[in-house]
Amino acid sequence: MIKTHTFRLGKYYIDFLDNLDGYCKVPSEKDTLNMLILKGGRRKALTSAIHESMHTEGVPDRFLDGDRDSAEHIARFLWRLGYRKVDTK
User: Fold this and answer.
1) Which is nearest to 43 in space by CA: 64, 7, 73, 13?
2) What would the pLDDT profile of 28-39 be if each residue is shown by its tens digit?
3) What pTM value is reported for the model?
4) Could you give the CA distance from residue 58 to residue 54 in angstroms, rounded to a whole number?
5) Dihedral sign, CA of 26, 32, 38, 41?
6) DSSP label at 1?
7) Other C-beta atoms lying within 10 Å of the C-beta of residue 81
8) Using an 8 Å Cβ cutoff, are 2 and 11 in contact?
C-alpha cells in the first residue's frame, strides 16, 4: 500500500483512517507533511483522496470546501466511468 507521494507542495506521508473524511497539512518550513484519507473502496473514499490531493497541489480552498466541492464532482465522474480501488496485497 502507498505510504508516501510527492505532490507540488512536497512529499507527503499518507495514512488511511476509518473515521475521518480526510486531512492534509499545508506546509511550512519545518513540517512533516501528512495526509489522512478515508480507508475503503467506496466513492466517499475516492472523494477524500481527490479532495486532499487537490489541497497538496495548492488548489485554493474556494474550489474544495462548501457546496461546490470540485473533488466531489470529479469523484462522481470517475465513479461513473468505473474507477474503483483494487486491493494489491
Assistant:
1) 73
2) 666 778 999 999
3) 0.86
4) 7
5) positive
6) -
7) 7
8) no
